[in-house]
Amino acid sequence: MVSSVGTEYEDIWEIVREQVDISREEFDKKVNEVYSKGKAFLTKRAAAIIVAKKLNISTQQILYTPIIGRLLEVGATRMARSARGETPYVLFTIVNEQERIPCVAFGEKHISTLKKADDKVVRLKNYLKAKLQKYSITKITEESIIEILDDNALPPITDLKPAWAESLKDIKERRGTHIVKVLVIDESSSEYLSCPICGKTLEFVSDEWLCPEHGSVEPETKTIRRYILSDRSGTFPAVYFGTDVQESILNRLIVAKGYFRNDEFQIQKIYWISDNEII
Length: 279
Ligand SMILES: [Zn+2]
Description:
Bound molecules: zinc ion
CATH superfamily of the largest domain: Nucleic acid-binding proteins
Structural class: alpha+beta
Number of domains: 3
Helix content: 10-25%
Oligomer: single chain
Order of helices and strands: HHHHEEEEHEEEEHEEEEEEEE
Number of strands: 16
CATH class of the largest domain: Mainly Beta
Strand content: 35-45%
């Protein structure tokens, strides 16, 4: 007879179920056996951990249950040097209804997954926690798993409070990518020549257009939009390389995601533009 189980070890069962061919009934039975042997010193959850370990589930996976969040930002690829050679890594942040979670991912595979997953719902498994000076960071190693979940798994990113900043000044002070609602009080655009592969600005060197990454390429003309954004905290210059915005958004309110590079707000995405001019 297997007693009914509450939620005391559902998360551990989830991890076991994915990796071991065992029925729920059998797992519960094993948990109860261990529990009845050490009742005075164990909770049902502790018994489940012991059983999971006997089934060869790593302690790391048991301690750090999967995290779900939307991918708010991914930084540039950098290189970590160690005795074993060079490993590429990126810093990234995911956000859910409760918090912003700073993370770092190592290895080409994870980097390429992340670079294609802007705003998507991701689930991180089998990660580690690393302590930095001021905060702890979730560390995605080559053994960790990043999965893209169905978009319904979380509300839209603009509905996730921890993704928002109070104001542009607030973003500038806090660093990192945030969402804000601001008024566009000036706009202009100019064209530049970019690499057709990566979009970087080209340099004209001895009769050729050169990309810093791809060498000689056939240039592509792109539009860069510059704005002055305003909110109660002040006015701030902004730049946007996206192509999905109408000709003029002057005097309109926008909801956008971005970060500060020096004194300039880098708009990464515009989610909403007011139908009417506000001023
Ligand atoms: Zn390029």
